[in-house]
Amino acid sequence: MKDSGPSRLGTVEVFCVAAKAQSFTAAATSLGTTPSAISKAVQRLENRLGLTSVNKMSSSVFASR
């Protein structure tokens, strides 16, 4: 994994990249990591905040309102 991956970024930053890309796969490519690592980072953020931050629809993700 590159230095810019989720282990180097906070969960909010990872969420922002995923929301902007509307895809965990695209976010993973951008950050040099795996879609699974992106998903886990977003799940950690959701658990910490006690809410659902993204709507997952097939291969796309969208920020919740």
UniProtKB/TrEMBL annotation:
Pfam family, one: HTH_1
Domain HTH lysR-type: 13-50
InterPro entries on file: LysR-type_TF_proteobact-type, LysR_HTH_N, WH-like_DNA-bd_sf, WH_DNA-bd_sf
Top-level taxonomic group: Bacteria
GO function term, MF aspect, one: DNA-binding transcription factor activity
Entry's family note: Belongs to the LysR transcriptional regulatory family.
Protein name as annotated: HTH lysR-type domain-containing protein
Record organism: Paraburkholderia rhynchosiae
